[in-house]
Write a structure and sequence with these properties.
Order of helices and strands: HEEHEEEEEEEE
Largest sheet: 4 strands, antiparallel
Distance between the termini: 45 Å
Helix content: under 10%
Shape: globular
Radius of gyration: 20 Å
Strand content: 35-45%
Number of strands: 10
Strand order of the largest sheet: 3-5-8-7
Mean pLDDT: 86
């Protein structure tokens, strides 16, 4: 214990999170603090590009203030997970997910993040008109034989976004 500069607490019952009503989703368990340890922002800047922009503004001393309201639409994502099954690890696997614009405003996919470098994504960059469909094409390329379960997060101007898409399989 004498090698620690700060106190260490092991919370086997997760009491700290329950007492402070912290969110259970890890993306919201990241805090930006000031010099007095006051929370300035909550959210994971690695997993969410909007949070990253907010953190950078705060750190650089830029005004936060009222942001322009983003035009929101509605989407339906009929499939949020796909299993490639068994395949040779040397062969890349690709699957396309659909994001249907069910609202009455154009849909814009602003960013897509992946849980690892083994996943590449190509997605519809231009606005999708009401009734149209955006495509998120996910490609998995294994480095070695292994089972995998990876996540792709899609950000955009819809109330249902971000949405997480999951791909899994067994690269043999």
């Amino acid at each position: 214990m004498d090698r620690f500069t700060y106190p260490v607490c092991i919370d086997k019952n997760d009491s700290f999170n329950h007492l402070n009503k912290l969110p259970s989703i890890p993306n919201f368990q990241t805090f930006l603090l000031n010099a007095d340890n006051k929370v300035l922002a909550v959210g994971n800047p690695v997993a969410n590009p909007k949070i990253k922009e907010l953190y950078l503004k705060i750190i650089q001393g830029q005004p936060i203030g009222e942001e322009k309201e983003t035009i929101q639409t509605q989407v339906a994502v009929p499939e949020t997970s796909f299993t490639f099954g068994d395949f040779s690890w040397q062969e890349a696997q690709t699957h396309s997910f659909e994001v249907k614009n069910t609202g009455n405003k154009p849909l814009v996919i602003q960013d897509v993040t992946t849980s690892c470098g083994c996943i590449t994504v190509d997605f519809t960059k231009e606005p999708v008109q009401p009734g149209g469909t955006a495509i998120v094409k996910v490609t998995y390329k294994a480095d070695r034989a292994e089972y995998f379960n990876k996540t792709v997060t899609v950000y955009g101007n819809a109330e249902q976004l971000p949405v997480q898409l999951h791909v899994s399989g067994n690269a043999k």
